[in-house]
Amino acid sequence: MNTAILTNVYNHYLTSYAPKSNNTGRYDTHKKSELRNVYDSIVKLNKESPWYLDTKSRETQIFAIGLKEGARALHNTIASIGGLEDSQSLEQKTAFSSDEEVVTATFTGDAGSSALSPTLTLTVNRLATSQENMGAYLTDERVGLEPDTYSFDVSINDLNYEFQFNINEDDTNKDVQERLVRLINNSNLGIQARLDEGDSRSSIRLTSTATGLPEGKQEIFRISDDRTSKTAGAVDYFGLSYISRQPANASFILNGEERTASSNTFTVGKMFELELKSVSEPDTSVSIGLKTDVESLTDNINTLIGSYNSFISAAASYRQSQHLSGRLVSEMGRLALHYGADFEQMGLHLQSDSTISIDEERLSETASSTDGSFSHETLKNFTNALLQKTSQVSINPMNYVDRVMVAYKNPNRNFASPYITSAYSGMMFNGYC
Fold first, then answer.
1. Are 173 and 137 in contact (CB under 8 A)?
2. What is the pLDDT of residues 263-283, one digit of tens each?
3. Closest Cα partner for 235 from 243, 221, 225, 227?
């Protein structure tokens, strides 16, 4: 089967049903050896796995993908705080911004580069904006174009795409507008379409997902039907080519130097990732730097526990439709309970629903104390246990699905079939790796 089709299918489920996560990007790229380990793990799991009836339940599909993506998000959170290496677990420095309503900062360097990290001053003059085309507002009456097959061309990212659609005898303006909105959104070209309605009129609004100006250009996308293959006229009639907002680069002053960026999120010196939120007040600047060791440590613990709690809550939300999700919640709770005594001393309290609450004052006190009340080793062991659990759930989320077993495999004649565990166990790893 075409891998592009597989990726589109998986991304459909991911976009529609899976928990969203910001912890993507560099933690979702892997070496060949890591991918081989994943594959080998699936093969080993499948060799002893019984034969189950395949499930076609839509709720089960959503549940399995949600579990897998939740485990991936928790794994990436642990990676982001240095948890993949014992020597760096919870050691990742965290950045501060003196005004997070203007700009937020994330430290992207490593422990070795943190000593060289500078303090930045930033003034935001303008945010990067996307391109917006605003169509004509039309009443919901018979469309003013003759029934025919129409087409128009979209130029974006130096590529041209042709869209074709039919206008029927009884179609109204709104019928065709809704059809065009679906057509453009389903294309995934980097343009979001929506129907704006008001005063018994409707208009197509087109917005680019990208921001900023492409080099040497004045627009991100262009729509026309001057040289299209089918009947022309739809672009002018629906007003699709009218640019109501030109794209613009972000403009800011960094350490006294004027700079621009095509996106509101960018990196500085491979140490900070900055996200511009709003324009600065006149004659004011934002300071950006690294927090103290204790502040970074408590931030990392809050991040870890927050992601753990989110994973627990997401799994628990399926209890009514997938009763085996309760088994996963119990397993995670027992894992945390193993460290419960040390957690209590640090201000981490295991709740009856298996989530963990944080006494911020107690955590800060113990993190800065030298009386032994704070156990860094306990937290490292906890993160290692979570990594093992997330790996297990990612490889076989169907372990927590109620399935009908048909038979055990013949132990004397066993063949490796890594993706037969279920239609969803592999989850098309190449979509992220």
1. no
2. 999 999 888 999 999 999 999
3. 225
